[in-house]
């Protein structure tokens, strides 16, 4: 994840990691909240269906999604899968 970007967008894959750019600053969890909101909208799921599993203070994060398969995630985000 890249905080303080010029716009919110999916920037593609780097290896097996999805790169996401967000306008929110990495201050007091604002970027983490923005990430969950961005992913929820992109995936068409509720924010409560997503959870930040690890990486709250890091650019690399692990997010779990309930009620959606990895294949559906890849399809809805327009990345390989």
What this model shows, in words?
This protein has 81 residues and is an alpha+beta fold. It has two helices and four strands; from the N terminus they run ββαββα. The chain has a single domain (9-77), classed as YggU-like (Conserved Hypothetical Protein Mth637, Chain: A), CATH 3.30.1200. 27% of the residues lie in helices and 25% in strands. It has a two-stranded antiparallel ribbon with strand order 1-2. It has a two-stranded antiparallel ribbon with strand order 3-4. A hairpin with a 7-residue loop joins β3 (50-54) and β4 (62-65). The two termini are 19 Å apart. The model has no long low-confidence stretch (mean pLDDT 94).
Provide keyphrases for this structure:
25% strand, single chain, 27% helix, 81 residues, alpha+beta, Conserved Hypothetical Protein Mth637, Chain: A
